[in-house]
Batch of 2 targets.
Target 1
Amino acid sequence: KLVRQAVRQAINKKNLIKTAWSGYGLEIGSFVPPTDPWYEDLSTLYPYDVNKSKALLKSAGYANGLTFNLDLPPIAYATNSGEFIAASLAKVGIKVNLKPIAWGEWIDRVFTKKDYDMTIVCHIESNDMAIYANPAYYFGYNSTTYQGLIKKAASAKTQEARVENLKKAARLLADDSVSDWLWLIPNLQVAKKTISGIPLNTVGDAYTVDRITVG
């Protein structure tokens, strides 16, 4: 946990977003987007702080540093982030070996066999906090407390109780630094001014064509 926290505090998310995604993106600090009622801005829980990162590594017994492999699937947000993350972690004594891999290898070795040190991938499924409650999932997170919160949220009889439990679950994820949520990727769309009818807030990869007009 201390090492994971150290990794989070070694990366300047604002600069990463500028470098890897042209500034388009939002720091969130956990696995919840601002559109969910249980969202809480946890981006300042483990803010960028090189000195604190080094102190955490020392407390974890890695004052002399350590080495990780970072598996990068062939997609821009991952490959664009690799060099920045490697350089950031090098400043606190963590050596990162960048490993570009094909999607087939990522699915087989990383996702299925859970054979990896670090990787970058975007999760876009809606209301998917329950995946962290599955210890067999490739995150490998096994917290009975978290699992209990997700169960309570699923069986809650009121929206207030559901929101309360999911908010607690999101904070627990952030406290445990299960992952480092680099940024929330926006759904960017580009169209000519002559095209109208494109949904402004679509969450899918397809359009209903009969609503789109040209001219």
Note: Helices lie at 2-9, 13-21, 50-59, 76-90, 103-112, 144-155, 159-176.
Target 2
Amino acid sequence: MSFFRRLFGQEAEPEVPDVVIPTDELIDHGPTLVVGGATHIGQVRKRNEDAYFVLEATLARDGESFPFGFFLVADGMGGHKGGQLASSLTSRVVVETVLREFYLPWLGSDTENTRPQRPINEVIIEAANEANLVVHRSAPPEAGTTLTCVLIQGTNAYIAHVGDSRAYLIRQGRLEQITKDHSLLARLIELGQISPEEAASHPQRNVLYKAIGQGSTLDVDFYLKSLPANSFLLICSDGLWGAVSGDRMAAIVKEASSPQDACHQLVREANAQGGEDNITVVLAQIKG
């Protein structure tokens, strides 16, 4: 006797009637988010001290849906695995905090009163400060890490930033740096005491004046950026932007078949230029 006959007393699978869903009950799909990410040890370093995280989702409410994404890049420093520990601790603490305080409440909420009530900037800045305390207490004294993290809700990007990893906006083939480097040379350039060309080969080009884990308190930069339709948000470690020019990065993104393809091409380009540092990149596209 067949499965359906035993279960339903009939030989064939029962017919399923057509279901018509009223158009006013359909979810209106607006902009979508497509994301890629990649990391590589490079051609010189003995270990990869970079870390990155990518979460891509769609949240729905009141008959509408909107893209949600959370991404970060952390570039560890300190040697003897200290940098690797700092970047991995930072990634874990920041991700856990943002998911706990913002993302998971959305998944479990069905009313306005049970959805996350805290401002997004408050959540991600708190996450960075929690990571700073954990690294400061748990990692070797010389260990630290950069942190550039982005939460995308709809077409808005909320960015928390410490160090010299970078966030860029790419639209219409042009690249715009969003974040400010917390490096000694960036400060000297800002003060007019050194040129960008001189900074490129300066022996102290990797010295930071602000990083995760370097003190018990931390001043985190925050940026809010609107993402136009079909624009890209790119975050990366200095292993990419220090090896590949901004114009070249924008051209690779424009010509690539997808954000993931672009990430692989960007890593290959940095390695082709010598790969002197670990290389990490995350690329998110808003498709509208």
Note: Residues 32-287 form a domain with the Phosphatase 2c; domain 1 fold (CATH 3.60.40.10).
